[in-house]
Each structure stands twice: as structure tokens, then as C-alpha cells.
Write a structure and sequence with these properties.
With 423 residues, this protein is of the alpha/beta class. It is 34% helix and 22% strand. The protein folds into 2 domains: 8-195, 3-Layer(aba) Sandwich (Rossmann fold), CATH 3.40.50.1950; 207-417, 3-Layer(aba) Sandwich (Rossmann fold), CATH 3.40.50. The strands form 5 sheets. It has an 8-stranded mixed β-sheet, with helices on both faces. Strands 2-1-3-4-5 form a 5-stranded parallel β-sheet, sandwiched between helices. The structure holds cytidine-5'-triphosphate (CTP).
Length: 423
């Protein structure tokens, strides 16, 4: 299912009751067309024998830093131009490292760069993606030390497959139970796909202007009207465009997200500020992706002081409409600039999306149904369709990062068709 020749992935198994589930994970990765190799920590061997993994993977299992080959890789590897030190060689030749179960000890080692065993040394030598699926007692999982270590790893780009809740081996019920092997395998495949999508620098020479997040319209100095947008979709587009070689300007409303590295961020709060920023930078853009959830109304006559509670039970705020930034930008764009809008809908999704395509005069609209639980607003995942005048491409439910890549793929196709301006 993946095109690249090298199908090798490394499964790191740590010492925990859930170690036996790694056997199923290895099998599922094979089913996905990958070639899993296994590295076990010393503690893991107390739970499952290396022979089990050796039999199922068809490869020698690495069990220690000072193992039978004393940490020295084989001549074949050296000849292929990779390190002859085995943990470095393993890191250089594998496409991804997935650790399942990842114990509190291994997470701490990874987070702090300790390198006392094969797995932790290999982690330090990894260039490719790293995925960890933690499993431990609920109290250990919720301990501030573990939380902090997980956050360090996440911030460093390690993918964490969150443990689920349920009966734990210790007799307690709660979080800390290893995610299902199917879920871990799915994430591995997804991460590898994302990686292969983003390595192409097919956006070199483009300047992509992205709007993201939900605008805030002040009511008084302490209150505002906002919406549930997290900004994740727009940030994912900005990050993906950057990774594909574009210069990226991200006009962002307030979000809890960190600006992707190398992206120029213009922070704004209200719809009017967003409009001003977009109009100011419009001339630089060759592609515009407007993922922000912009307020359609603002409060007329914002109170200068905090509004006090009144005796009356009903309070009325007078609202006035804001400008449609997307429409204005589509009208004023430079010739050759592609404009993509978003439409978050709760009913008649496609018809409303098509309506916006025309009404706003844009080249494409990404529509998504935000009434679906677990998708869209305030979620890591999204689904939807990419609508153009000539067609419709459906995106099944996927991570927003992955969807950002698919959106850029479609933008690229429009560019290829020479479509730059809406007629
Ligand atoms: N948009 C914008 N400026 C606005 C409102 C929306 O630029 N004042 C953009 C959004 O960033 C998005 C697209 O228009 O790309 C569609 O936003 P949406 O809120 O769905 O559209 P509306 O025109 O507000 O339509 P409605 O609220 O009636 O669904």
C-alpha cells in the first residue's frame, strides 16, 4: 500500500503486561505491507520471549546494547553507506520507530535524552518519525512527571497514541491501557503517508496566505463573542505549505496553537483586524486558503466599561454585519492568485458549499459537516469535500494534517489546469 521501496519499520517493545499486544501490532504492520523489525528492552523480555517476535517478524530481534554483535552493525549496512554502529544503523535504515507499549521509564528516557539501552540510543539517532503508544498504571500515567515527559515529546514532533481507559492489569480502572494494536498500526501508516506527501517541495515559489482560528468580537473590555474554531485546520495548511517549499503568511486569530516554524504569523483578534491584515498582504499571495471562522456580526457600540448586571431578565445586544473577507479578497486578488474558501455547515452541506463557491467568487471551497461528532470544530480530525466548478473530490475522515496535504494536492492540480482566476 506504500510506494517507497523501503518498508522497514522498527517496533520497540518495553517491559509491561501489554507487551504481548506488540505481537499483534507486528502482524498488523505486516498486513499493511510494512516490514517490522523488533527491538526489545531488557524488561520486555520478562514478559514476552524474543523468539516469538523473531518467528513472526522473520528477523533477528535486538535485545540489548551489548548484544551478540556488541553494538556493531553488519558489513552489508556499512557497504550501503550507513553507520556500522548498530543503533545508528537501525535508526538510519528504518522508516519509523513505533514504541508499544511505551513505559513511563522509556518516555522519561526519550524526553530527557538518556541513552542507556538500545531503544533509547536508537531514538536519539532517529531522523524519521517516532510514534509512542504509552501503557502503564493510571496513577503513573496521570503523574505530573509523565504528563510533562509526554508533552516534551509531543512538542518535539513525536506522535503519541493516547492510551484508552479500561481494566488495567493492576486491578484498577482508568486511563493507561495500551491503545488497540489496530489503532497503533493505523497511526503508523498515516504518519508514513504524511511524511511521503510532505517531502515534495512542489510549492516552491508560491506565497500562501492562510487565515486561521475564530475571530473575537468585543462586547465590553472583558467579554467577547467567539466561536468554537480551534485554528488547527488553518495551521495544518500553513505547516504543510511550508514543508512543501512555500513562503507562508498566517493571519491568525487567537488560538492555543504554536506558530509552525518558518511561517510568518500576523496575529489578529477581530474580523475587522483580520480583514485589514489580509488586505494589506493580499498583493504578496499567489495562493490564499481562508480557513478562519470569521464572525459575521460584531457588536454595535462596544461598551467602554464592563457591563454591569441589570435587574431586567433580558438583555439585548445590537449587532452589525462584518465585511466578507473572502469575497473581498477574491475580488481584489492579483491575477493568477488561487483562492480557496472553507464552509463549515450543519445541513445541506454540498448545496451550501456550491452556493458559497459562486457567491464568494472563489476557485474552490472545502466543505465539511460540523454536526458530525469527533470531526471538524475543535477536533484533530476532519472530513469533507473539495468543490470546484468542474468537480468534487471527497476527503474521508482523516487527521487535519493529512487533510491539509490533500487540499494542497488539489490546489496544485488546479494550478496545473491553468486555473488561476475564476471567470
Ligand atoms: N469568511 C470571511 N469573512 C467573513 C465570513 C466568512 O472571509 N466575514 C470566509 C471564511 O474564512 C470561510 C468562508 O468565508 O473561508 C465561509 O465562511 P462561512 O462562515 O461558512 O460563510 P458565511 O459567508 O458566513 O456564510 P453563512 O454564515 O451564511 O453560512
Amino acid at each position: 500500500m506504500m510506494n517507497a521501496e523501503n518498508m522497514k519499520v522498527t517496533v520497540g517493545v518495553c517491559g509491561g503486561i501489554a507487551a504481548y499486544k506488540a505481537v499483534e501490532l507486528v502482524r498488523l504492520l505486516q498486513e499493511a505491507g510494512l516490514d517490522p523489525h523488533v527491538v526489545m528492552t531488557e524488561a520486555a523480555e520478562k514478559f514476552v520471549g524474543p523468539l516469538t517476535f523473531e518467528a513472526i517478524s522473520g528477523h533477528r530481534v535486538i535485545t540489548g546494547l551489548w548484544g551478540d554483535r556488541a553494538g556493531v552493525g553488519n558489513a552489508e549496512g556499512a557497504a550501503a553507506g550507513v553507520s556500522s554502529v548498530e543503533h545508528v544503523q537501525e535508526a538510519q535504515t528504518t522508516r519509523a520507530l513505533v514504541v508499544a507499549p511505551a513505559t513511563a521509564d522509556t518516555l522519561a528516557k526519550f524526553a530527557h535524552g538518556l541513552a542507556g539501552d538500545f531503544l533509547s540510543t536508537m531514538y536519539l539517532a532517529m531522523h524519521g518519525p517516532v510514534i509512542v503508544a504509552p501503557a502503564m498504571n493510571v496513577v503513573m500515567w496521570e503523574h505530573p512527571a509523565t504528563r510533562a515527559n509526554v508533552e516534551i515529546l509531543r512538542a518535539r514532533g513525536v506522535r503519541v497514541v493516547e492510551p484508552g481507559s479500561g481494566y488495567l492489569a493492576c486491578g484498577m480502572v482508568g486511563g493507561g491501557r495500551l491503545a488497540e494494536p489496530e489503532e497503533i498500526a493505523r497511526v503508523v501508516v498515516e504518519v508514513l503517508r504524511e511524511g511521503s506527501l510532505e517531502t515534495e517541495v512542489d510549492f516552491a515559489g508560491e506565497t500562501v496566505l492562510v487565515t486561521a482560528g475564530g475571530t473575537r468580537e468585543a462586547i465590553d473590555p472583558v467579554r467577547f463573542i467567539g466561536n468554537r474554531s480551534s485554528g488547527r485546520m488553518g495551521y495544518a495548511v500553513a505547516e504543510a505549505a511550508k514543508a512543501r517549499g512555500a513562503r507562508v503568511i498566517l493571519v491568525s486569530a487567537v488560538t492555543g496553537l504554536e506558530c509552525p516554524s518558518g511561517v510568518e504569523m500576523v496575529p489578529v483578534v477581530s474580523a475587522e483586524e483580520m480583514r485589514a491584515a489580509v488586505m494589506q498582504r493580499l498583493g504578496e499571495a499567489t495562493v490564499m486558503v481562508m480557513a478562519a471562522a470569521v464572525s459575521d456580526y460584531r457588536v454595535k457600540g462596544v461598551a467602554a466599561q464592563k457591563i454591569k448586571r441589570e435587574k431586567t431578565r433580558v438583555m439585548t445586544l445590537e449587532l452589525e454585519s462584518t465585511e466578507d473577507i473572502l469575497r473581498e479578497a477574491a475580488t481584489k486578488r492579483r491575477p493568477g492568485t488561487l483562492v480557496v474558501g472553507f464552509a463549515a455547515e450543519t445541513e445541506d452541506v454540498l448545496a451550501n458549499g456550491r452556493g458559497k463557491l459562486e457567491r464568494k467568487g472563489v476557485d474552490a471551497v472545502v466543505v465539511n459537516d460540523v454536526s458530525e461528532a469527533g470531526l471538524g470544530f475543535d477536533s484533530e480530525r476532519n472530513s469533507g469535500s473539495f468543490l470546484t466548478r468542474g468537480g468534487e473530490v471527497q476527503f474521508p475522515a482523516m487527521l487535519k494534517r493529512e487533510m491539509a496535504g490533500r487540499i494542497l494536492d488539489e490546489v496544485k492540480k488546479l494550478r496545473g489546469k491553468g486555473l488561476a482566476l475564476s471567470e
